[in-house]
Amino acid sequence: MVCNCRERQALPGFEKENNFMKQINKEELYDNLSEFLKTKGVNLQDGSYSRGIQAGCSFLADAINLSQAGINRAREEIEKQFEHARQVIHEKTAPKTTAKSASSGPRSQPRPGNGKAGSGRPRNGKVSKKKARGK
Fold this sequence. Notes:
With about 140 residues, the chain is mainly alpha-helical. Helices cover about 55% and strands about 0% of the residues.
């Protein structure tokens, strides 16, 4: 089906090109947390405590990245459903044309004649032998 609707626009906040966030790097998260703690006077040294914090940062980064992937998949599915709904609405509200009226074109006018139903000639244009002899 051909759609003659105006250009469709994506819903605000659901643009396909727009990724909401970049992937979070586990090491970068830990490094930023370490720098933040240094500004507060806490220096993380190598040891079991810092490895636990690093594992927590790794877990947090994974959780955020997986959540983001789930949100992207959900957004794509919502877009598909909206597109389907738009198509259904378009099909239901589009002007209806019948096959007969669309293919027949304008109706032909009857030929001028002697006022009788036909011109006396068959459709193929030949005069029958009976009429030619009988006149």
